[in-house]
Amino acid sequence: MPVKPEVQQFLDLIASLPGPPPTELSPDENRTGFAALAATPGEEVASTTDQVIEGSGGPFGVRVYRPLGTTPDETLPVLVWIHGGGFVIGDLETAHSQCCALANEARVAVVSVDYRLAPEHPFPAAVDDAFDAVVWVADHAAELHVDATRLAVGGDSAGGNLTAVISQMAKAAGGPTIAFQLLVYPVTDLGMRHPSHVENGDGYFLTHDMMAWFTHQYLGGRDISNPRVSPLLAADLSGLPPALVITAEFDPLRDEGEEYAARLAQAGGTVEQIRYDGEIHGFFDLDSFPDAADARRHAARSVAAALGATAGRA
Questions:
Q1: Is 145 annotated as catalytic?
Q2: Active-site residue among 91, 97, 156, 157?
Q3: Does the annotation count 251 as an active-site position?
Q4: What is the mean pLDDT, run by run of 10 residues, along the chain of 314 residues?
């Protein structure tokens, strides 16, 4: 099917914007542009609290969300959310709308991770921060009023990559125990070898050239085949948490996300994979897209079911 009408309107708007393409801009210029596009107020939640935590590679920020209808001392299941942006752009503000919606719909606490960005902090800084954030949540569950035995991890795009990577790391390390992983159009193979990189490589918001630019900023020549870079290339995907993998028809990352879901299932895992036809990379972030609301609702209810929470808004 063709892209949906609202998607085409968005693509036309992006194409009409003046200036050079993102690949010719600096990381800071791209961060500014992405913030203008993606940072939205979000729906009301019971509370948000920003904190700085000390990771193994230095300090970074987190934002803790509690859903409407809950009290500050009520113990809740928790979702650690890792934003997208090619490991180069994005922050707590660009992830804010998703986190509000997921918290309220799943009725769980959400901890959003402001991991260090490349190229100033190349691989493995983002991996280290994401893993350290999950460890911190588990270790500080009592003061956060969350249940460390009901902990999920999720993220979109680069955040989906980091979700897959730290789920593998937690398994190898024997903890923290992750009950569920939510992978929204994840990057799973930075070698960009799949057919969808050709089929959807230009004209659908995220381009093949942009992915190459992000990869260069993040890795700077480091080994693409490292499973902590490309989790699809891990030899053994058994024993990983149950997963929901969301993909989009007109996304360069479509095939690698779907292959990761298939390999999880082949390894004996519990996996649901859903493709949104007519959609592009980034749709989950775009409040004006009807499919964004549907995908967030589906994601939240999957998280709630996995964590034993009662989904639905207060």
A1: no
A2: 157
A3: yes
A4: 92 92 96 89 96 96 97 97 98 97 97 98 98 98 98 98 98 97 98 97 97 97 95 98 98 98 98 98 93 96 94 71
The CA distance from 27 to 11, in Å, is 22
Reported as a single tens digit per residue, the pLDDT across 184-198 is: 999 999 999 999 999
Orientation angle between helical segments 158-173 and 125-139, nearest 10 degrees: 60
**Count, residues in the chain:** 314
Backbone angles phi, psi at 51, to 5 degrees: -140, 155
The domains located in the chain, with CATH, are: 5-307 (3.40.50.1820)
For 36-75, write each residue's pLDDT tens digit. Answer: 988 788 999 999 999 999 999 999 999 999 999 999 999 9
pTM: 0.97
d(CA 85, CA 229): 15
* The one catalytic residue among 281, 285, 291, 302: 281
State how far the alpha carbon of 286 is from the alpha carbons of 97, 204, 261, 271, 289, in Å.
9, 14, 24, 25, 6
Catalytic residue chosen out of the listed positions 129, 251, 285, 291:
251
pLDDT at 73: 94
